[in-house]
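BUG-373 | component: ligand-complex export | severity: low

The export step for octanoyl-coenzyme A jobs runs without errors, but we want the raw record kept on the ticket for reference. Input record follows.
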Amino acid sequence: MTKAVISGTGLYTPAQSISNDELVASFNAYVNEFNRSHAREIEEGSLAALTESSSAFIEKASGIKSRFVMDKAGILDPQRMVPYLPERSNDEPGIQCEMSLVAAREALEQSNKKIEDIDGVIVACSNLQRPYPAISIEVQTALGIQGFAYDMNVACSSATFGLQAAASAVISGAARAILVINPEICTGHLNFRDRDSHFIFGDACTAMVVERAETATTDNAFEILGIKLITSFSNNIRNNFGFLNRADASGEGALDKLFVQQGRKVFKEVVPMVGQLINEHLDSMGIASGQLKRLWLHQANLSMNQLIARKVLGREPVDAEAPVILDRYANTSSAGSIIAFHLNKADFKAGEMGVICSFGAGYSAGSVIIRKC
Ligand code: CO8
C-alpha cells in the first residue's frame, strides 16, 4: 500500500526576541503607571490595584525564558503592548505569506523537491490574518505552484491535522506532494496586559513536504505509520474574535476578543487526554513505547511535557527523548511540535521511530507516529 512520508521540514524564526526580564520590565512599568494614575479609586476601594509580574514565576511555571516575535518595540512599549505590524497594500505580500515562503523554501530544499513536484499547499494555523483570499493561495502563487491550496485552523493542533489532510491527499492520489505550512503570529492575539498569560506565546513558522514514499529522493524522509486525531469541546481556551463582532458593537474591543484561558484547568485536563491518546495510538499499531526514540511534543509548558512523556514512556524521560524548544520560542501554537521535530531529527537512523504530538484549544490533539526511512 502507498505510504506517505514527511520528506523535508523548514523553519522561519523571527529576527527579534524578548527575554522574560524585558517582558516583565514593560509589564511592570504598565502596572505601576496604572496604579499611579488610578491611586484614588484604588485607595477608595472601587478599583483593584494591579500586581507586578515576575521572571522567576514565568520560568518556574512554564519553562519559558524568551520568545521570538515579529515586532519587539510595539510589544515592549508600556503605552502600547501590541506588536506594530503596519498594514500592507493588496499588491504587497502579506506578512504570513512572507514567513511561509522562508519555511517552505527550506522544506522544499530538504526534501529535494522542485516547485513543479508540488500539487498543493495547506496553510494550517491558529490565527489567519484575513478570511480571504486564502493565505495558502497567496503562498501557492508566490512559489509558482500549480494545483490547489486551502487554509485551515485547528488552533495548536493545526499542523498535525494538516498532516492528516496532506497524507490523505497523497495516498488517495489527489496530489503527488503537498506543502503544509504553519505561520503563527501568536503575539497578534495575546493580551500583553494580562499577568496570567502575557508571557505564554511567541511567533514562528514551520513547513513540511508530504509526498508518497516511492517519490521521495532524500535521506531526510520519515514514513508516516499512523495518525490519530481527537477533539473535545472546551471553553477553557477561547478567543471570541470573529467576523460577527461588528454585529454587536457592545462587545467590540472587549478582552474576550483576544486569547483567554483557564491555564490550570487546561493543564489538568489536557495532560491525561494526550497521554491516553498517544498510548492508545501506539497500542492500536502494536508499537511499544520502549521502541520510540523520541517524542516531539507541542510546546506549551515544560512540566506538561514532562508529565506526558512520563505517561507514555512509563518512566522519567531523558532530555533527548522529549526535546524542549519552548525555553527559547515559548508557545508558538501549531508550529511548536514541528520546530521540535525540525531541530531534533538529524540523528535518526533508518527504522527508528518517534511521535509528533500536538494539543491545545478545542480541545484538539493529534498523534503522528513516524519511522525514519
Ligand atoms: N507573575 C507572577 N506571579 C503570577 C503571574 C505572573 N505573571 N501569573 C500568575 N501568577 C501567580 C498567581 O497569581 C498565583 O498566585 P496565588 O497562588 O497566590 O493565587 C500563582 O502565580 C499561580 O498561578 P496559576 O495557578 O495560574 O499558575 P500555574 O502554575 O497554573 O501556571 C500556566 C500558569 C503557565 C499558564 C500553566 O497553567 C499552563 O501552562 N497551563 C497550560 C496552558 C496551555 O497549555 N495552554 C494551551 C493554550 S495554547 C493553544 O491552545 C493555542 C491557542 C491558539 C493560539 C493563540 C495565540 C494568541
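Assignee comment: Attached the raw record above. The mean pLDDT is 97.
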